[in-house]
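Last lecture ended with a question: if I hand you only a sequence, what can you say about the shape of the protein? Today we answer it with a concrete record. The protein is DNA-3-methyladenine glycosylase II. Below, first the input exactly as provided, then the predicted structure, then a couple of comments.
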Amino acid sequence: MAKAMTADEVRILPPYWEEAKAELMKRDRIMRKLIPQFGDLHLASRGEPFSTLARSIIGQQISVKAADSVWRKFLEVCPKCTPVQVIRAGDKLAGCGLSKRKTEYILDLADHFKAKRVQCDKWAEMDDEAVIAELVQIRGIGRWTAEMFLIFNLLRPNILPLDDVGLLAGISRNYFSGEPVSRSDAREVAANWEPYRTVATWYLWRSLEPVPVSY
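The predicted structure:
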């Protein structure tokens, strides 16, 4: 169920959001019915780049509930969630419920940030594919995680995460009466959403899980 936004959420409304809603509702009959169901809810940034990526790695291949539990334990060990703090925690991260592999991934992420092997201060000016190309060089970050970062941290308006099961499920439910859909089907439906594919994706996620989740 849609809920009232906090003052912080109102302040960080993506600048394209209202225009995107109007365009999508004008072009797409499904969006015309779906978007009004969520009132003033909108996409909001998930914080600093490092913590956003660390949380994305933690959430890979586990449920939202499990990911939230591990994240809370992670913040008990690394309350500031900085690269230096994570590196100092080292093997203690395993006690948060992280697998050995995910621990290695988060430590590698921290090392990339500490050694400045990523240009996070330039990401805002780089195009989508350039940011993805840089991120996927970090262990544990594939294209899906990079796309989630573009959506939830950089608030890019036109991301279509074709590897996302929630997007495919949302298209299946809303456009194909629950029938399975392929990436090709999804791409065809999404052609009508340009240049606001992020916004349409977000509303399809909400149609499955009304309360926004963190990636």
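Comments.
1. Residues 1-10 have pLDDT under 50 and may be disordered.
2. The CA atoms of residues 13 and 44 lie 7 Å apart.
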